[in-house]
Specification:
329 residues, alpha/beta, Rossmann fold, seven-stranded parallel beta sheet, two-stranded parallel ribbon, 10 helices, 13 strands, binds nicotinamide-adenine-dinucleotide, binds uridine-5'-diphosphate
């Protein structure tokens, strides 16, 4: 009998790569998604795979799964700042009510649950690089607070279910991860710059571009998550690539990579945009014998090739994603 894993957010960027990885490792995968920010095309290649089933469902509603379940990976949540600013209440609900439902499911099925947390729990960090024992610097009432606090609550309720009910839980704090299947218009910096280069537009750097990020290629991220799930460690673990770069230097890298003749233009910095971010991965190195392997230049090239392969229509379609059908009055 194959082990069964439920992956929420399966039609999204990370969720779909996790489905691929678990299928390649011989698991039976149940994908769940309500498509609020995901896309059917990310899992289309799994359509005929007998080890893959898909359930269209909003995880903030009660979840029913027939039969046994061994593992759950909770990746459902808007992840791009533009998305979670447009759907703030859905973001809060999926991190809180959704996580509560999945913890209840894990308890009922005696399954191990891994939740996708984020570097955003550190907010605009005053400790650099960020270690897991740093409690963070988050503005609870700022526009990004809906995501950051949902994820912080998610960590708290997960630890409570672990301590009170003995549910087996794992918490990964994911730092900026990129790769094929990101949505071209989701507003995150890599698809944004690559889309602009492909359309012959100037690259929009927010603020003066001195803020930093550290970008991890998706294959490395998935390997770290996989190792964490099968480790014995219940506390949060940072998974990301410590190679840090300022956004203005990154824009220059993208200009070189894409050979665009466009220039950088500067726009206002979004409210509470963190000024620096770099994971300290000492714990992951020691605990999981994990570290990222894919250099930024290589990962960016693969990602750019993916975006280059999109149709003209996809490249030029502006983001008119209709969130209204997901919003209850
Ligand atoms: P994504 O937007 O591509 O994927 C999220 C998926 O969750 C989408 O398919 C969406 O439709 C689905 N979803 C959202 N709300 C749902 C609900 N209520 N019920 C069912 N499905 C729902 O984003 P991603 O980059 O793949 O992120 C996946 C997870 O990883 C998120 O939890 C995010 O917070 C976390 N994360 C990602 C990054 C990153 O750099 N990619 C960094 C930190 C944390
Ligand atoms: N950013 C930018 N131009 C864009 C999109 C993003 O300069 O067109 C900046 C953004 O302000 C932030 C960084 O790039 O400082 C990373 O943004 P992203 O949305 O990818 O992720 P996050 O802020 O969640 O790390």
């Amino acid at each position: 009998m194959k082990k069964k894993v439920l992956i929420t957010g399966a039609a999204g960027f990370l969720g779909s790569h996790l489905c691929d990885r678990f299928l390649s490792e011989g698991f039976h995968v149940i994908g769940m998604d309500n498509f609020i920010t995901g896309d059917t095309k990310n899992i289309k290649h799994l359509e005929d795979n007998l080890d893959f089933e898909f359930i269209k469902h909003d995880v903030t509603e009660h979840i029913t799964i027939e039969g046994s379940l061994d593992y759950i990976l909770h990746f459902a949540s808007p992840a791009s700042p533009i998305d979670y600013l447009k759907i703030p209440i859905q973001t809060l609900k999926v991190g809180s009510l959704g996580t509560h439902n999945l913890l209840g499911l894990a308890k009922a099925k005696n399954a191990r649950l891994l939740i996708a947390s984020t570097s955003e729990v550190y907010g605009d960090p005053l400790v650099h690089p960020q270690t897991e024992d740093y409690f963070g610097n988050v503005n609870t009432i700022g526009p990004r607070g809906v995501y950051d606090e949902a994820k912080r609550f998610q960590e708290s309720i997960t630890m409570a279910y672990h301590r009170f009910h003995g549910v087996e839980t794992r918490i990964v704090r994911i730092f900026n991860t990129y790769g094929p299947r990101m949505r071209l218009n989701d507003g995150r910096v890599i698809p944004a710059f690559m889309g602009q280069a492909l359309r012959g537009e100037d690259l929009t750097v927010f603020g003066d571009g001195s803020q930093t990020r550290s970008f991890c290629y998706v294959e490395d991220q998935v390997e770290g998550i996989f190792k964490l799930l099968f480790s014995d460690y219940v506390y949060p673990v940072n998974i990301g690539n410590p190679n840090e770069i300022s956004i203005s230097d990154f824009a220059e890298e993208i200009i070189k990579l894409t050979n665009t003749t466009q220039k950088v233009i500067y726009k206002d910095l979004p409210v509470n945009d963190p000024m620096q971010r770099q994971p300290d991965i000492t714990l992951a190195r020691k605990l999981l014998q994990w570290e990222p392997k894919v250099e930024r230049a290589e990962g960016m090239k693969i990602t750019f090739d993916y975006f280059k392969g999109l149709s003209h229509e996809e490249l030029y379609k502006s983001e008119h994603r209709d969130f209204s059908k997901h919003i209850k009055t």
